[in-house]
Each structure stands twice: as C-alpha cells, then as structure tokens.
Amino acid sequence: MSALVVYFSFEGNTKLIAEKIAETISADIVELVISRQYPQEGFGKYFWGGKSVIFGDKPKLLNETIDLDRYQTIIIGTPVWAGSFTPPINSFISKYKIYGKQAALFACHGGGGAEKCFVKLKKVLSGNDFIGEIDFVQPNKNPEENVSKAIRWAKGLFN
After folding, report:
1. Is the pLDDT of residue 13 over 80?
2. 3-class DSSP state for residue 46?
3. Which of 3, 5, 33, 43 could form a disulfide with 29 if both were Cys (CB 3.0 to 4.6 A apart)?
4. If you average pLDDT over every residue of the chain, what do you get?
C-alpha cells in the first residue's frame, strides 16, 4: 500500500494530525506551501479566508511537482473555512486531477462545518473510492485526545 498525506495547515492543527496519520501508516507527506500568506489575526484572518473560499481562489503552490502515480491512496487534510476546504487544497485538486484512487479526508475546525466540507471535497474528487473521513475540533487545544483519535482512524483505513 502506497499512501500520500497532503495537507494545508493554517495554525498548526492540521499539521499535527497529518504528521501523526502519516507516521502511523508509513505514508509520504506533503504540506502545501503557498506564495502569499493569509492574515494570522483579527478580522482580516476571517475576512480573507472566507472571501478566498467564496471566490474559489487557487493560490500558487510553491511545492515541487508530486508524482501521484506512485500512490494508491491519497489522504487530504484541510482546515474548514466558511464550511469548505481551503484555497490551497483547491489549488492542489485543480492542478492534479485526482481520479481512480483510494481517498480519505480529514478536517480540523473550531466548531463546525466539517460535514459540508466533506460533501464539497467528495464532489470535486468524484471518481475516487472514499475509504474514510474524520474531523477534529481544535487539535492543538487537546493534542493527546486528538492524536489518539487520529492514530485509531489511520489504523482502520485499510481494514
């Protein structure tokens, strides 16, 4: 089984979970890096993030090209912004046209929107076999519980 964990992390929550999933299943891991950063604080943080989702922004990715043909399973992790996945994930999906893979999804959020996010992701990733989805509420505020939850989920993906 060859697996890749691809994620974007804004405040470190998604990174924490992505790293634990990749470690648990011995997957390769790629953190999406973008050319411009979003505001980290105050009203601007929510305004620019929400606006970027609503307008379907696709920020430029600075990552090297990823050879998805090497992977049978793609696991995608995202924060939830405005009930959706983040613009860097939008860029990744648009660039790579993922099809015919096993796919799993995870989302980190502050209190909602994960179900809508998963519906939207599954729509743009149609043509793949979805093997799992899970969400985490503010993983950095309760890391032990969330890391344990991520490990259990990751171990169960291929059963």
Report:
1. yes
2. helix
3. 5
4. 90
Residue type, 81: W
What CATH code is carried by the domain that includes residue 39? 3.40.50.360
Task: Count structural domains, the chain.
Answer: 1
pLDDT digits over 26-40, tens only?
999 999 999 877 646
The whole-number pLDDT of residue 112 equals 85
**Cβ burial, residue 12 (10 Å; 0-12/13-18/19+):** exposed
Sign of CA dihedral 52, 106, 11, 89: negative
d(CA 114, CA 95): 23
pLDDT given at position 159: 76
Chain-centroid distance, C-alpha 138:
14
C-alpha to C-alpha distance for 130 and 119, rounded to whole angstroms: 12
Q: Residue 137: give the domain boundaries.
A: 3-156
Pair of tokens at residue 137: 């509420």
Which of 134, 159, 127, 128 is closest to 149 using CA atoms? 134
Question: Which residues does 129 contact at the CB level (< 8 Å), separation at least 6?
Answer: 101, 102, 103
Instruction: Give the predicted TM-score (pTM) of the model.
Output: 0.91
Angle at 82 between CA 16 and CA 51, to 5 degrees: 110
